[in-house]
């Protein structure tokens, strides 16, 4: 079985997910993992599917014809599930440009790879401003020092004026 990671973007409407699922199913594929969202009126998704090797090209052709969606298949590999130490932390503070850039720069310098990042902006309940909220799960690569990374993330949180909570 081939692994395909599908990225899908298009104007949000009812039935988009069904159209993708129908195409995968029609080629004997299996929908394994996905992250789907509506962002500013646009449907955006990342989907991992497995499909018989001899059906990959046919599925690619059908995905190109899903109305209203731009679907790009990327060939994946059978990578073993990554186990080991993980760290999760959350960020909350007044929204401003550069928060994700600063955090990701700190993580990269400390050889931490992001396994999952979820973020959003929300209305601040009392001040009328906008809050930025993120949850990040990272895994250390060889040579990483988690303790030093936490110290740097805490320092950065003070600089960019956000609350950091390490789980």
UniProtKB/TrEMBL annotation:
Taxonomic superkingdom: Bacteria
Limits of the ACT domain: 88-167
InterPro entries: ACT-like_dom_sf, ACT_dom, GcvR, UPF0237/GcvR_regulator
CDD domains: ACT_GcvR_2 (cd04869)
GO biological process: one example: regulation of DNA-templated transcription
Pfam families the UniProt entry points to: ACT_6 (PF13740)
Protein name: Amino acid-binding ACT protein
């Amino acid at each position: 079985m081939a692994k395909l990671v599908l990225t899908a973007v298009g104007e949000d409407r009812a039935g988009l997910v069904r159209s993708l699922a129908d195409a995968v199913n029609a080629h004997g594929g299996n929908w394994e993992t996905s992250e789907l969202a509506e962002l500013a009126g646009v449907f955006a998704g990342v989907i991992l599917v497995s499909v018989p090797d001899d059906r990959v090209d046919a599925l690619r052709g059908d995905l190109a014809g899903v109305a209203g969606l731009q679907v790009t298949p990327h060939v994946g590999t059978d990578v073993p599930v990554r186990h080991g130490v993980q760290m999760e932390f959350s960020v909350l503070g007044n929204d401003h440009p550069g928060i994700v850039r600063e955090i990701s720069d700190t993580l990269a310098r400390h050889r931490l790879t992001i396994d999952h990042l979820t973020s959003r902006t929300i209305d601040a309940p009392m001040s009328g401003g906008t809050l930025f909220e993120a949850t990040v799960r990272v895994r250390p690569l060889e040579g990483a020092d988690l303790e030093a990374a936490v110290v740097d993330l805490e320092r950065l949180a003070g600089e960019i004026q956000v609350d950091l909570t390490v789980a």
